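Here is an idea for our session: we take a single protein and study its fold together. To get us started, please write out a protein record for me. Start from the sequence, derive the C-alpha cells from it, and show both lines together. Go ahead whenever you are ready, and we will take it from there:
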Amino acid sequence: MSGADWQDQTGVVTLPRGARVRGRRLADRATPADFALVLAEGPVPAWPYRRVSWPDFGVPADGGDALDALRDAHRRAYAGERVEVVCRGGTGRTGTALAALAVLDGLSPREAVTWVRSSYNRRAVETIGQRRWLGKVCQPVQPSSTPNLP
C-alpha cells in the first residue's frame, strides 16, 4: 500500500511535495497505517510506531530525538508508507509535527504554520513555543563537539 491508499481519508493531508500523511487523536478509532509517530503517553496502535516524549502544549523533551523521528516519518511517507502522527488531542503536538514535516518538505516555518492550519486544523500549532520550535527543524544538524582522539 502507499500513502495514497488510506482506507479512511479523515485527517489525511498532502504535504507540499506530494506525500500524504494522517494526523489524528490517539484515542480515535482509525484504519491501519504502516507507521505511527506517537507524541503522547497512552495506548499505542497495533502497527509499528515510534514514541517521542512531547508534553502537551509544549515542545519535544529531546529535540534531537524528535527531529530524527520526524525525518524518519518524512522518509517513510515519501517511500510510499502510510504514515500517521498522533497525540492526545490531535491538534497542538500533531499539528506542530505535521508543520515540521512541511518544513522538511521545503516550506519556511511561517509558511508551514499557515499550511497546517489550512490543510489540517485551524488551531494546529497551539503555542508560541511550538511556533518557535519549528525554526529548529530547518537548522542543519550540528556536528558533534567531541574532539577527535588519536
Observations:
- The helical segments are 63-78, 92-104, 109-119, 128-137.
- The chain has one domain: 12-137.
- The radius of gyration is 15 Å.
